[in-house]
Amino acid sequence: MPTNPSASEANDAIRRFVDAQSADSEWPAEDYEVLLVEWAAAIRASGIEPAA
Length: 52
What we know:
Layout lengths: L6 H14 L8 H18 L6
Helix pairs in contact: 1-2
């Protein structure tokens, strides 16, 4: 994952992460949080307003 992914790249990374998790296992919360922080930064940098 690039240091500063685009909003689309960050969204794709989150989608891949979610798809890779099994329903009966504990999610690696720290990894998910990093992806969400990258997504938020990419959204702000792109000027896109996230849906409320």
